Amino acid sequence: LRAERVAPDALRDGMLTDLTRMGHMIDDTLCYLRDDARREPVSRIDLPSVVQTVCSDFTDMGHAVSYVGPARLAWRCRPLALTRAITNVVDNGVKHGRQVTVTLALTADDAVVIAIADDGPGIAAGDRERVLAPFFKAEGARPQDGSGFGLGLSIAQDILRRHGGDISLAAAEPRGLIVRLRL
């Protein structure tokens, strides 16, 4: 309420922006810590449909996100949690790159790999493990423009591990980042 009454407008707008950012950080932190997602029941879904829906949502917002993979593939998972993990990684890709490609593939050992590749600046090899830690944002590898709080990849990793899988990061050629979600 005090921020609404502050003059001049520039000061007020800055305060309101800070308050909004703090609200988002608290929401992201609570989402990371809460137990609801851990209790979501496992169900059988059409995995390509879920991945394509995430891609379409970003495309509808004006981002260049494409899907490559099978048209159908039944898979058992926690669909809301997995959607969150995929969304977090694609969101990072569109923040830092112009184009994102999401590839879904079944491996020879009957695992699924969802690879999210962007054409952004990438992340230095020495920081790839560290960016999976909560609240860590790599210096210089990703813009420190105030967007995000360093929780997206941590949440994705937690979700993948609860599915018996994992997440890995690698350099894309000629530039960018590839995040592989293995189920």
Topology readout:
Elements: H1 2-5, H2 9-33, H3 36-39, E1 43-46, H4 47-60, E2 64-68, E3 74-77, H5 79-96, E4 99-106, E5 112-118, H6 152-162, E6 166-171, E7 177-182
Parallel strand pairs: 2-4
Antiparallel strand pairs: 1-3, 4-5, 5-7, 6-7
Describe this structure in words.
The radius of gyration is 18 Å and the shape is globular. A hairpin with a 5-residue loop joins strand 4 (99-106) and strand 5 (112-118). With 183 residues, it is of the alpha+beta class. It has six helices and seven strands. The strands form two sheets. A five-stranded mixed β-sheet has the order 2-4-5-7-6, covered by helices on one side. The chain has a two-stranded antiparallel ribbon with strand order 1-3. It starts with a helix and ends with a strand.
Quick structural overview:
This protein has 183 residues and is of the alpha+beta class. 42% of the residues lie in helices and 22% in strands. A hairpin with a 5-residue loop joins strand 6 (166-171) and strand 7.
From the structure above, extract its key features.
183 residues; alpha+beta; 5-stranded mixed sheet; 6 helices; 42% helix
Shape: globular
The average pLDDT is 84
DSSP strand (E) fraction?
15-25%
| Total number of beta strands | 7
Stretches where pLDDT falls below 50 for ≥5 residues? 141-145
> Total number of helical segments?
6
Q: Helix content range of the residues, please? A: 40-55%
Q: Tell me the major beta sheet.
A: 5 strands, mixed
Strand order of the largest sheet: 2-4-5-7-6
Order of helices and strands: HHHEHEEHEEHEE
- Report, as a whole number of angstroms, the end-to-end distance: 47 Å
- Rg over C-alpha atoms, rounded to the nearest angstrom: 18 Å
What structural category characterises the helix and strand content? Answer: alpha+beta
